[in-house]
């Protein structure tokens, strides 16, 4: 007999089917269980998705926000949707079944250890979506045989535990999504380490594995009351979140509760590696993040992927190293940067001859994690560079305090000194193909040359203004505006500019180059595209007629350390030199 369709309630009984378009709704109406596709009418996780998933989400919130996904590693293809059903199998498991192929896409995997001697192995159990958002399978005697809270994904709801069962050995570990639209297992995990350290750890799952945040259970008796006090003081979290820790003979875990049952909150492990506490704002109709750990975007290990530089104060924080490009730009846009960046040009490494590769410096960065070896022999930076160049697998080196360090393979967690969360004076030299180096050198020299020109201009203007102010400081008259019939050309080619024209040339004085030397210097361009620097004078005043005469005199002066005076503007009580 084919299963009958499930109605929209909180229970799926044996013999009932559950297909795409059906859903279970908790008795409180707060949560729903059904099939969904990330990005399909989903504001919070837009764009495309690999397929369809069985998930639990907030039922009364218009932004579909999954809090649990059953089959993150096995999405259901669109062509298989009609043949896909959720039902309780003959052995009492909750399964996603492809009726066309009679294959099991996902199963709750209830084992004999989950059942007591009195529990039947027949399909007499039922699935219930509780008001807490926990999906459970109950026996006829109301014994919980399985629950979604014991199989977490990237989200922990109030009442869900992170930790382990000392009796059964079950360890509840949360794992981030691969991207904003792909629930597959991502790069980061949070859980209680059970190998003797007994620490709550948030770390990088891939190679190389790295823990970047931890909390020792031994510190809980002191830190937990302090954390509760801080959350109580904060108006955003007061009465909303209460953290708890338990350590007894049967279990050791961390969890939080929410006294405000009307609120909607969840703790998530983001694709970036940050742990975030989110609350739904009814007024703004959007999720608000009220707690983040770690605060620094660059703190999670390898958050930008290999061969990248992370700057926590920048947006976006990740960028490729010189002569590298994004391995998968589309994945980057979706928050998946595990592929990082790739070389544009392969390195030149042939054991039969010397390599033509060169090294490019990246200043003020933290040195990479991962495989690293120190070379004691090299006494100079040149010898350190040669040691790296002689090894085909060497991709970077650093020479600090007479110590040579080299890196082999991919480079992870190179973070820029932003003057806020990260400070570093180290310089990392990355290995590049010679054909990439000239362009990178040119690109890197442009800001330097521009800086030299700007500095010279500012110094020259300073000398010019000093001479001008020494001349005009004898007078204390108020300036007058430039009359409409004033001449536009002074002697020796010094031009009297109109204030409106000067505003257009400087984009309304928006590009500031520097200050000092009796005024502020701005970047500008004349109508013929000639680049100029414009200085507003400060701290002196005189009559317009005398100001014009003395500017003309300065136009005659030529000196190696003086920038040529092109023109001036006298407007109201403001004087400007160009």
UniProtKB/TrEMBL annotation:
<dbReference type="GO" id="GO:0004674">
    <property type="term" value="F:protein serine/threonine kinase activity"/>
</dbReference>
<dbReference type="GO" id="GO:0016020">
    <property type="term" value="C:membrane"/>
</dbReference>
<dbReference type="InterPro" id="IPR001480">
    <property type="entry name" value="Bulb-type_lectin_dom"/>
</dbReference>
<dbReference type="GO" id="GO:0048544">
    <property type="term" value="P:recognition of pollen"/>
</dbReference>
<dbReference type="InterPro" id="IPR001245">
    <property type="entry name" value="Ser-Thr/Tyr_kinase_cat_dom"/>
</dbReference>
<dbReference type="InterPro" id="IPR011009">
    <property type="entry name" value="Kinase-like_dom_sf"/>
</dbReference>
<feature type="domain" description="Bulb-type lectin">
    <location>
        <begin position="9"/>
        <end position="150"/>
    </location>
</feature>
<dbReference type="GO" id="GO:0005524">
    <property type="term" value="F:ATP binding"/>
</dbReference>
<dbReference type="InterPro" id="IPR003609">
    <property type="entry name" value="Pan_app"/>
</dbReference>
<dbReference type="InterPro" id="IPR000858">
    <property type="entry name" value="S_locus_glycoprot_dom"/>
</dbReference>
<dbReference type="Pfam" id="PF01453">
    <property type="entry name" value="B_lectin"/>
</dbReference>
<keyword id="KW-0472">Membrane</keyword>
<feature type="domain" description="Apple">
    <location>
        <begin position="349"/>
        <end position="433"/>
    </location>
</feature>
<dbReference type="GO" id="GO:0051707">
    <property type="term" value="P:response to other organism"/>
</dbReference>
<keyword id="KW-0812">Transmembrane</keyword>
<dbReference type="InterPro" id="IPR000719">
    <property type="entry name" value="Prot_kinase_dom"/>
</dbReference>
<dbReference type="Pfam" id="PF08276">
    <property type="entry name" value="PAN_2"/>
</dbReference>
<feature type="transmembrane region" description="Helical">
    <location>
        <begin position="448"/>
        <end position="472"/>
    </location>
</feature>
<dbReference type="Pfam" id="PF07714">
    <property type="entry name" value="PK_Tyr_Ser-Thr"/>
</dbReference>
<dbReference type="Pfam" id="PF00954">
    <property type="entry name" value="S_locus_glycop"/>
</dbReference>
<keyword id="KW-0675">Receptor</keyword>
<protein>
    <recommendedName>
        <fullName>non-specific serine/threonine protein kinase</fullName>
        <ecNumber>2.7.11.1</ecNumber>
    </recommendedName>
</protein>
<dbReference type="InterPro" id="IPR036426">
    <property type="entry name" value="Bulb-type_lectin_dom_sf"/>
</dbReference>
<keyword id="KW-1133">Transmembrane helix</keyword>
<feature type="domain" description="Protein kinase">
    <location>
        <begin position="507"/>
        <end position="578"/>
    </location>
</feature>
<keyword id="KW-0732">Signal</keyword>
<keyword id="KW-1015">Disulfide bond</keyword>
């Amino acid at each position: 007999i084919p299963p009958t369709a499930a109605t929209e309630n909180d229970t799926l009984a044996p013999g009932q089917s559950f297909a795409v378009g059906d859903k279970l709704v908790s008795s409180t109406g707060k949560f729903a269980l059904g099939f969904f596709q990330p990005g399909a009418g989903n504001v919070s996780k837009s764009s495309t998705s690999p397929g369809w998933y069985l998930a639990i989400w907030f039922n009364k919130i218009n932004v579909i926000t999954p809090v649990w996904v059953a089959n993150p590693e096995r999405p259901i293809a669109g062509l298989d949707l009609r043949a896909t059903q959720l039902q309780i199998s003959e052995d009492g498991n909750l399964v996603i079944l492809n009726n066309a192929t009679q294959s099991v896409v996902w199963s709750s995997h209830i084992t004999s250890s989950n059942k007591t001697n009195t529990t039947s192995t027949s399909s007499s159990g039922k699935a219930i979506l509780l008001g807490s958002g926990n999906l459970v399978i109950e026996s006829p005697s109301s014994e919980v045989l399985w629950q979604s809270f014991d199989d977490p994904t990237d989200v922990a709801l109030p009442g869900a535990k992170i930790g382990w069962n000392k009796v059964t050995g079950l360890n509840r570990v949360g794992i981030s999504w691969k991207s904003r639209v792909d629930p597959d297992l991502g790069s980061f995990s949070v859980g209680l380490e059970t190998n003797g350290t007994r620490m709550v750890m948030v770390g990088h799952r891939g190679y190389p594995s790295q823990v970047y945040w931890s909390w020792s259970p031994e510190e809980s008796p002191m830190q937990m009351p302090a954390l509760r006090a801080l959350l109580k003081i904060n108006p955003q979290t007061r009465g909303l979140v209460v953290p708890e820790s338990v350590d007894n003979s049967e279990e050791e875990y961390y969890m939080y509760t929410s006294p405000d049952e009307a609120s909607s909150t969840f703790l998530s492990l983001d694709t970036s590696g940050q742990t975030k506490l989110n609350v739904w704002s009814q007024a703004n109709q959007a999720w608000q993040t009220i707690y983040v750990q770690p605060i620094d975007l660059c703190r999670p290990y390898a958050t930008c992927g290999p061969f990248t530089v992370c700057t926590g104060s920048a947006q976006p924080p990740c960028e490729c190293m010189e002569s590298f490009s994004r391995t998968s730009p589309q994945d980057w846009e979706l928050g998946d940067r595990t592929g990082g960046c790739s070389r544009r040009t392969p390195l030149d490494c042939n054991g039969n001859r010397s390599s033509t590769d060169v090294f490019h410096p990246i200043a003020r960065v933290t040195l990479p994690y991962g495989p690293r070896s120190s070379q004691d022999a090299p006494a100079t930076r040149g010898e350190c560079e040669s040691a790296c160049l002689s090894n085909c697998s060497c991709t970077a080196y650093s020479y600090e305090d007479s110590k040579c360090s080299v890196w082999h393979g991919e480079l992870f967690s190179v973070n820029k000194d932003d003057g806020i969360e990260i400070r570093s004076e180290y310089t990392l030299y990355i290995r590049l193909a010679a054909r990439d180096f000239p362009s990178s050198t040119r690109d890197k020299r442009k800001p330097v040359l521009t800086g030299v020109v700007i500095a010279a201009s500012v110094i020259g203007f300073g000398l010019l203004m000093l001479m001008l102010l020494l001349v005009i400081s004898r007078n204390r008259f108020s300036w007058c505006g430039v009359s409409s019939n004033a001449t536009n050309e002074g002697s020796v080619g010094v031009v009297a500019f109109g204030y409106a024209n000067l505003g257009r040339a400087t984009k309304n004085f928006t590009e500031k180059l520097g200050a000092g030397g009796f005024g502020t210097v701005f970047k500008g361009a004349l109508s013929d595209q000639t680049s100029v620097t414009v200085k507003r004078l400060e701290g002196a005043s005189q009559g317009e007629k005398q100001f014009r005469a003395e500017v003309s005199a300065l136009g005659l002066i030529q000196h190696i350390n003086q920038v040529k005076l092109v023109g001036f503007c006298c407007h109201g009580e403001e004087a400007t030199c160009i």
